[in-house]
């Protein structure tokens, strides 16, 4: 598949031999690859961080709180990040996010108690908010409008592949004896890294590897990724209202419900799966990624030929169904079924919801619109981890997954009702 060179003009003017807007430009391919690298590194921590907190003496409530607090930080900083993406530029902010993440990874070597992880998780949230907002705005700019849904789907394929790579590699790194010598050598020679010395699990290697890769990715973005849109010069301080987008309010609410369901998967599934007899929970995330990847590859072009709501409502409903499967009694293989259903649901919902929002947003405020949209993601992950952790402490895992399913189902209902009203309004105007 040939990659076109990027001219200074927008993506609409670059067409292929058939007259269609060219999709696989250097900008689109470059940001997709960078997204793959970032999320692969981020997802190294999904099946591993709960065990790290547990090794330091944390209970299930503390695990949920420490995982969720990063999203709370994202919630606080994302409006300002969105404004900076629109004023300072897309590429500088995504490089900043990658470098913040590299520093964050190294800092995980320091804690000797769960409480010491708290400020590090705050930095995690800031780095994720910065990278995600800048990268999603960059791909929205780079994608031609006529193929926006397809571009979002393929961009999301990077997330799918990251789920296949990150959790499995993370689980391998902390468990393999191949890295025992590296861990013991580093922690004995560099006292600052001794906090990651947790017996038979090799967290030092995990933290150093992810920091090094994040630094290399930031350098690659600076050297090879096209600059993207140049923002207009504006030295004024932003008004509070200029940090948010009213257009993104409903998509943010729906994103909240989907992210609440996601919190149930990422915060507690590794521990729940272990209790159900699955020794490497990373395999569950690999299956999720495979299903998500297959669905997005097959449905990419349909995202621009069928209405967005054909993917949004069924997608979030599938998330609710997957959580009910997790909560159901039965053999452990049902967890793999649940993750497969969850992968299809995410594959449908996420790119369609982003395209739905970008369709309705002016280019000059896309950073703020997408930051408002992902505020729902931050709030859902943060509150989800806190609330579900409390439910697990008071009841059990199954009660938490049933509650998460109810929240996701509410999101599907809210969007279906809003879309039906919007369609009735459009029909009335046409008549």
What would you note in describing this structure?
73% of the residues lie in helices and 1% in strands. It has 431 residues and is an all-alpha fold. The chain has a single domain (21-430), classed as Growth Hormone, Chain: A (Up-down Bundle). It has a two-stranded antiparallel ribbon with strand order 1-2. Helix 1 (26-43) packs parallel to helix 6, helix 3 (60-87) runs antiparallel to helix 4 (90-107) and helix 4 (90-107) packs antiparallel against helix 5. The longest helix is centred in the C-terminal third of the chain and has 34 residues, at 397-430.
Could you name the key traits of this structure?
single chain; 431 residues; mainly alpha; Growth Hormone, Chain: A; two-stranded antiparallel ribbon; 14 helices; 2 strands; 73% helix; disordered N terminus
List the strand order in the largest sheet: 1-2
Low-confidence stretches: 1-13
CATH architecture: Up-down Bundle
Q: Beta-sheet strand percentage?
A: under 5%
Q: Return Rg in Å.
A: 21 Å
The N- and C-terminal alpha carbons lie at a distance of 46 Å
Q: What is the β-strand count?
A: 2
The helix count comes to: 14
Kindly provide the name of the CATH class.
Mainly Alpha
Oligomer: single chain
Mean pLDDT: 81
Q: Report the biggest beta sheet as strand number plus sense, adding barrel if it closes.
A: 2 strands, antiparallel
SSE string, helix = H, strand = E?
HHHHHHHEEHHHHHHH
CATH topology: Growth Hormone, Chain: A
Approximate helicity band: over 70%
User: How many structural domains does the protein architecture include?
Assistant: 1
Name the CATH superfamily assignment. MFS general substrate transporter like domains
Overall SS class: mainly alpha
Shape: globular
């Amino acid at each position: 598949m040939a990659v076109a060179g990027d001219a200074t003009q927008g993506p609409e003017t670059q067409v292929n031999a058939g007259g269609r807007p060219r999709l696989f430009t250097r900008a689109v391919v470059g940001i997709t690859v960078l997204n793959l690298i970032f999320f692969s590194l981020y997802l190294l921590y999904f099946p591993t961080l709960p065990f790290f907190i547990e090794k330091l003496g944390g209970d299930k409530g503390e695990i949920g709180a420490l995982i969720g607090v990063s999203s709370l930080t994202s919630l606080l900083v994302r409006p300002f990040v969105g404004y900076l993406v629109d004023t300072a530029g897309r590429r500088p902010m995504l490089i900043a996010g990658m470098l913040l993440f590299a520093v964050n990874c190294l800092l995980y070597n320091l804690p000797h108690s769960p409480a010491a992880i708290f400020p590090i998780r705050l930095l995690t949230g800031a780095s994720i908010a910065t990278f995600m907002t800048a990268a999603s705005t960059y791909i929205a700019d780079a994608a031609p409008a006529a193929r926006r849904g397809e571009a979002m789907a393929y961009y999301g394929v990077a997330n799918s592949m990251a789920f296949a790579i990150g959790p499995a590699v993370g689980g391998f790194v902390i468990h393999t004896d191949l890295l025992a010598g590296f861990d013991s050598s580093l922690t004995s020679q560099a006292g600052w890294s001794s906090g990651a010395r947790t017996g038979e699990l090799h967290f030092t290697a995990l933290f150093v590897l992810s920091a090094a890769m994040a630094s290399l990715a930031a350098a690659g973005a600076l050297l090879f990724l096209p600059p993207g849109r140049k923002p207009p010069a504006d030295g004024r301080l932003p008004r509070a209202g200029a940090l948010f987008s009213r257009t993104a309010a409903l998509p943010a609410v729906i994103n909240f419900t989907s992210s609440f369901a996601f919190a149930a998967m990422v915060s507690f599934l590794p521990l729940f799966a272990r209790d159900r007899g699955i020794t490497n929970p990373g395999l569950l995330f690999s299956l999720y990624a495979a299903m998500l990847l297959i669905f997005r590859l097959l449905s990419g072009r349909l995202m621009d030929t069928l209405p967005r709501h054909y993917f949004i409502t069924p997608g979030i409903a599938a998330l609710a169904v997957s959580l009910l499967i997790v909560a159901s009694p039965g053999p452990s293989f049902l967890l793999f079924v649940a993750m497969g259903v969850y992968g299809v649901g995410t594959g449908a919902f996420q790119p369609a919801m982003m395209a739905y929002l970008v369709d309705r947003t002016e280019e000059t405020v896309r950073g703020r619109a997408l930051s408002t949209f992902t505020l729902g993601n931050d709030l859902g992950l943060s509150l989800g981890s806190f609330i579900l952790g409390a439910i697990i402490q008071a009841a059990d895992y199954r009660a938490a997954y049933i509650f998460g399913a109810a929240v996701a189902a509410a999101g599907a209902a809210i969007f279906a009702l809003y879309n039906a009203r919007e369609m009735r309004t459009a029909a009335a105007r046409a008549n």
